[in-house]
Amino acid sequence: MDVFIEPIGRLMNEFSKLPGVGKKTAQRYAYRVVNMTEEEARGFAESILDVKRKVRFCKVCGNFTEEEVCSVCHTRSAEQICVVKEPKDVVALERLHAYKGVYHVLHGVIDPMNGVTPNDIRIRELLDRVGSGTVKEVIMATNPDVEGEATAMYIAKLLKPLGVTVTRLSRGIPIGGELEYTDEVTLERALVERKEL
Question: What does the alpha-carbon distance between residue 170 and residue 2 come to, in Å, rounded to a whole number?
């Protein structure tokens, strides 16, 4: 005999497909849905379908939008482009309310071990944008891991001949961090990228 009846088991299986959701979490989510009112469940299901129907990628930057071109691309100067791996990285940077330029979402990074080549991410579109002549600076904001660093270096080499400034987000010791608990790579980066006071 199966432990879960078929509808609950199927729902658990669907929840377990989400990143970071294991069997126990999927079970909790499924039981929560079972205990929802029909109106709550309908609202939950409709919000999922609504996202699939309405959300698309901005034809300029590749971020999520409901329109053909997102509000950031419509309203901000294109002199500065911040290159990120995924749309969720745009959200992280926008929370700061400090960046006033536009974005370019690669939708991945170069990762030969997993078969991701430069042709599989939105590098060509970035080169086309920079080639338009209005861009003065490209900020590489990919993650500071092996794939993110390799992608940033690869793109920087392609952009240098186009006459734009290419910068990289600074890395180092977090505010409130202690030297004795900082890993060697981070500490080395902080030392190399030190700034004059």
Answer: 53
The one-character DSSP state at 173 is P
Nearest of 81, 87, 85, 83 to residue 63 by alpha carbon: 87
Domains of the chain, earliest start first: 6-54 (1.10.8.420), 72-168 (3.40.1360.10)
Each residue's pLDDT expressed in tens, for the chain with a length of 197 residues: 367 889 999 999 999 999 999 999 999 999 999 999 999 999 999 999 999 999 999 999 999 999 999 999 999 999 999 999 999 999 999 998 889 999 999 999 999 999 999 999 999 999 999 998 899 999 999 988 889 999 999 999 999 999 999 999 887 777 777 767 777 877 777 777 776 65
Q: How many other CB atoms sit within 10 Å of the CB of residue 13? A: 13
CA 63 to chain centre: 9
Q: Which uninterrupted H or E stretch holds 90?
A: helix 87-94
If you search the block for the tokens 């039981």, which residue do you land on? 31
Among candidates 161, 92, 83, 69, which has minimal Cα distance to 121?
83
The residue behind tokens 């961090």 is 177
Bridge pairing between strands 56-57 and 80-84: unpaired
